[in-house]
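Work Package 3 (structural annotation) set out to generate three-dimensional models for the target panel prioritized at the project kickoff. During this period the team completed the workflow that converts sequence records into discrete structure tokens, so that structures can be stored uniformly alongside our sequence database. As a representative example, we reproduce one entry of 228 residues exactly as it appears in the project archive.
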Amino acid sequence: MTIRAFLPCRKGSERVPRKNIKPFAGVENGLVQIKIQQLLDCNAIDEVVLSTNDEDILYFASTINNPRLRVHKRVDALCSSSTSTDELVSHAVDLIPDGHILWTHVTSPFINAEVYSEIISSYRKCLDIGYDSLMTTTLIHGFLWSQNGPINYNRDIEKWPRTQTISPVHEINSGVFLNSSINYKNINDRIGNNPFLHSIDKITAYDIDWPEDFLIAEAIASNGLARI
């Protein structure tokens, strides 16, 4: 089984300027440096495909001497804030037309090489028992409501059950989507029709989206609460 990582990394973060390459927790080139190293350190990944239009990231990537890293200069038309995930799905399978695609992001700095290995092992096992893809989730053990009332518990049975006994809900954390290129082509999606939900803990799954997320993640890394 050939597994290639797809790492999209566009220029122009609107919420955190230069989020992908600004220094992070003492790492000079920040999140992109951390993520590329994590992916290259995972022996279960055959190739890392970095797709970016950011000149600073392109320059940094050019300094990495590793045959398993392939750098693609993405056209600006696929790098705007209005670019849809569907367009990136087509882009990913254009770059990786065969084998299996592990879609991940630099904004998950605590999904390290060891975690990637565990996820890939889980993927191999889940394919053997009927699943066709995998995505990472975070379990929510809380009181979830819609406008129509509770979603994950029954107030007719118990108005306020212990949160430990509530059936957890999976929140997609966008850490990893792992799927075959065949499914990408046939379904036009980064998951298949029957994905396995691989849950990981909140800190490992921590995603950097807002300025405060960046600061909190730096504190987590600097205090040794998670390993990058």
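Strands lie at 3-8, 47-52, 69-73, 100-104, 133-140, 145-146, 149-150, 169-180, 195-199.
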